[in-house]
Structure prediction request, 123 residues.
Amino acid sequence: MPFGGSLARRESELVILTVATERRCEYEREHHRLLGRRAGLTPAEIEGILADETVASLSPREQVLRESARVLVRTKDLDDVQWAALRRMTTEREAIELLLLVGHYDVLATTLTTLRLEPDKHR
Prediction:
């Protein structure tokens, strides 16, 4: 069930972890490691995402969301082929939400990295 958006919470956390990995933002990576587990990502899936490895257990939709997030962080755009792949898997609302989610966490990574914030200590 969506948590404040159209994308499922698991999908949102997958995207956030992908952005954190692409941006090498340790604060986001550590914070969303726990949130990803709560959202249904397995420890193996989380570690695979954080290591930027292929994660075979992701659904085709999740793979497209992850690749779209990667491309957006790297190029700040989606070419026609990637946009078409995304739109085959999502509604228009979900596609727009993905763009905004990636943009938000990309900007947040810039802020956290520039401020040199350290990840929270786990209790």
Notes: The CA atoms of residues 4 and 12 lie 10 Å apart. The mean pLDDT is 94. The helical segments are 9-23, 26-38, 43-50, 60-75, 80-89, 92-114.
